[in-house]
Amino acid sequence: MSSRHVLTIEEVTLDDFDTYTCNATNQLGSSHGKIYVSGEADKVEITSAPMGGDVDSYDLAWKVKSFSPIIEYKIAYRKTKGN
């Protein structure tokens, strides 16, 4: 005997951001898991090459998953030794 249950949140709003818990029990025992749903963007993944081709410029490219539009980016950089 097999059962599958799915929780789908359509048209997510701020009220949906919370911690959700799933509890499962069967003849073999029980288990639970938690997931936190937030509106914060995931960690940025840099997609550009580590070393640029130009001496005085660098094209920085990245991708990120986010529920809401990102309206601001803050980029911190520093010179490395030898530069």
Task: Give an overview of the whole structure.
This protein is an all-beta fold and 83 residues long. The protein is built from no helices and four strands. The protein has strands at residues 18-26, 29-37, 45-46, 62-63. The strands form two sheets. A two-stranded antiparallel sheet has the order 1-2. A two-stranded antiparallel ribbon has the order 3-4. Strand 1 and strand 2 form a beta hairpin. The termini are far apart.
Brief summary:
The chain is mainly β and 83 residues long. The protein is 0% helix and 27% strand. It contains no helices and four strands.
**Count of extended strands:** 4
Low-confidence stretches: none
**Which secondary-structure class do the elements indicate?**
mainly beta
Strand line-up in the sheet with most strands = 1-2
Instruction: Give the count of helical stretches.
Output: 0
Secondary-structure element string: EEEE
What is the first-to-last residue Cα distance? 65 Å
Mean of all residue-level pLDDT scores: 86
Name some characteristics of this structure:
two-stranded antiparallel sheet; about 0% helix; about 80 residues; mainly beta
